[in-house]
Specification:
The complex is a heterodimer.
Chain A lengths: L3 E4 L8 H6 L13 H20 L17 H24 L5
Chain B lengths: L3 E5 L4 E5 L3 H24 L7 E4 L4 E2 L6 E2 L3 E5 L2 E10 L3 H11 L7 E9 L18 H10 L6 E3 L2 E4 L2 E9 L24
Parallel strand pairs in B: 7-8
Antiparallel strand pairs in B: 1-2, 3-6, 4-5, 6-7, 8-11, 9-10
The chains are: A mainly alpha, B alpha+beta.
Chain lengths: ~100, ~200
């Protein structure tokens, strides 16, 4: 068994400004595994969890309609912002190292 | 801000961690859609929220019965651990494998989503001493980063403050253990196109 793996290789914008002004980015797929494949498997797990939680069938819950949608673009944007914050934090630590 | 004390029984390590920006960003990005999915579910089946829970930073007993671990996110259905998220920033892949294999000994656990963030070169602070001129406002600092041009590793004043980053997403499902093959490498292109070293 090989776990699903995907390198999240987002098409990075040309600049920080582009990052903050552009709203749409596409997620490429690679090889046999992709984020879509991971999405598919995550949804199967989500439905299994709900099934386990429901126990007896609940007529109001239609398993086929259950969906969890991870926004990979949001992950990417959040990480880029976090990278900037991390870099700035490192810089500030360096600046504040004066006198230590 | 919460300080995390993590004891990895299988690694015999006590880690005292401050959550990093990178770590929290990834956890939030995965947490949000599951909260939405649970909310949508609660509209038609409110009672299900009594038996389906999503927690962060909750200690869970290791399947071996000895020691505890704290996943970044944990789903439980009827008190069974069903699904977890683990975000790793600058952890070795071997360390991740050992963690996951140990946790998956819990047969109820359907899978563990791993977001592995690695800085491809260890950061080291500049050897030069900062001067008074280096004390600048945050806005000016970010503006300076943007003036560096093409967005790659994050530079300011000719110094790299964050090297290129690679993010791997893995889904380890029930049944996997360390005797199986490692995940297949499907792409090795890096997140940031500009190489600074």
């Amino acid at each position: 068994m090989i776990p699903a793996r995907c390198v999240v290789d987002f098409p990075f914008p040309a600049s920080v400004t582009d990052l903050r002004t552009s709203s749409k980015h596409t997620i490429p797929e690679y090889g046999d595994f992709s984020l879509r494949d991971i999405d598919h498997r995550l949804n199967a797990i989500w439905r299994s969890m709900v099934r386990q939680a429901i126990g007896e069938a609940n007529p109001n819950v239609h398993m086929d309609d259950l969906e969890v949608t991870v926004n990979w673009d949001s992950l990417r944007s959040s990480l880029i912002e976090a990278m900037l914050d991390t870099a700035h934090s490192r810089y500030m630590k360096w600046v504040e190292s004066v006198g230590q | 801000m919460s300080i995390l004390f993590r004891y990895d029984y299988h690694l015999e390590n006590l880690l005292i961690q401050l959550p990093t920006d990178m770590h929290e960003a990834a956890v939030s990005a995965i947490h949000a859609p599951f909260v939405v999915a649970m909310h949508n579910l609660s509209l038609t089946a409110p009672a299900i929220m009594n038996s389906l829970t999503l927690r962060s930073n909750q200690d869970i007993k290791l399947p071996t019965g000895q020691g505890f671990y704290i996943p970044d996110l944990a789903f439980r259905a009827k008190r069974n651990n069903m699904f977890q998220l683990e975000v790793a920033f600058t952890q070795s892949f071997e360390e991740i494998r050992l963690k996951i294999a140990c946790r998956l000994q819990d047969n109820n656990l359907l899978g563990i989503l791993v977001i592995d963030i690695s800085e491809k070169k260890k950061f080291s602070s500049p050897k030069t001493r900062p001067t008074e001129e280096d004390s600048i406002a945050q806005d000016h600092w970010f503006a300076g980063v943007e003036r560096e041009g093409s967005f790659g590793a994050i530079k300011f004043k000719d110094q790299v403050w964050l090297n290129r980053i690679e993010v791997d997403v893995y889904l380890f499902e029930q049944g996997w253990n360390t005797s199986f093959d490692d995940p297949r490498k499907v792409c090795r292109r890096l997140s940031f196109p500009r190489l600074c070293y």
